[in-house]
Design a protein that fits this description.
about 240 residues, alpha/beta, seven-stranded mixed beta sheet, globular
Length: about 240
């Protein structure tokens, strides 16, 4: 996709979301998209590689949680994969400090190249299983916001996210449609881990019929030291 077509399509979507990018930020997103498509031929980063879909389903989708983030906040993006939502948010919000966490070193290598080529600052990558990340004293209960997109069901995701949010912090869980069952089955796990459901926002991505939900969890007390359990346990035996 040529840059002019990219910018026009991006502007069209942005006009429907009340977000704005300057020319430098648009250039960064365009470069990011091309790096994603290029690297995806070597390693499996995403099934979405058609430029129009990358813009809507990766970039715009990632930016839908911008409104929940206060100024100068710290954000951990868990299971970030190809950098979503963390890198689009960092491009938009130069004020926030972002930590990208992923368990696959090939993806970390890609993310590091994106960060270097886009000249992004106050953003770091951490190669780690999330359960180990949550046990690490350098990260445990340290973040204002923790987010994840399409990583796990809510009961499992809570054990990944809540331990690394600071008290008073928020977990921003990015979900598709039909989250009622997840919410019902995850409530006890959220409580045990020191969180509570603050709100659920449902919306549709611009110029589409793609439904999304964002579940906001508040961290109201310290997470018991035994959580998260060792790697693999949260997904094999979700808290009930």
């Amino acid at each position: 996709m040529e840059k002019e077509e990219f910018n026009n399509l991006l502007d069209k979507y942005l006009n429907e979301t009340s977000l704005k990018f300057n020319e430098k930020q648009k250039e960064q997103l365009y470069l990011y998209m091309n790096l994603l498509i290029e690297w995806n031929e070597k390693i499996n980063l995403t099934a979405i590689v058609e430029p129009k879909e990358v813009i809507l389903k990766h970039f715009i989708d990632s930016l839908t949680i911008n409104k929940y983030l206060k100024e100068n906040a710290t954000l951990a993006d868990v299971g970030t994969g190809a950098g979503f939502p963390g890198i689009p948010l960092k491009i938009l919000r130069t004020d926030i400090k972002v930590t990208l966490v992923d368990s696959l070193n090939k993806r970390i290598n890609f993310l590091n190249e994106v960060i270097e080529k886009l000249n992004l600052e106050d953003i770091v990558t951490v190669h780690s299983r999330i359960e180990d990340f949550g046990k690490n004293k350098s990260y445990r209960e340290k973040f204002d916001y923790v987010t994840a997109r399409a990583v796990a069901n809510l009961a499992v995701l809570s054990e990944y996210l809540i331990p690394i949010a600071k008290i008073g912090g928020k977990c921003v869980c990015m979900k598709g449609s039909n989250v009622e069952e997840e919410i019902t089955s995850g409530k006890n796990a959220i409580n045990v881990l020191g969180g509570k459901i603050e709100k659920v926002d449902e919306f549709v991505l611009p110029d589409s019929d793609i439904s999304r939900n964002v579940i906001i969890l508040s961290k109201i007390k310290n997470t018991p030291a035994r959580f998260p359990r060792k790697a693999g346990m949260p997904s094999k035996e979700p808290l009930k």
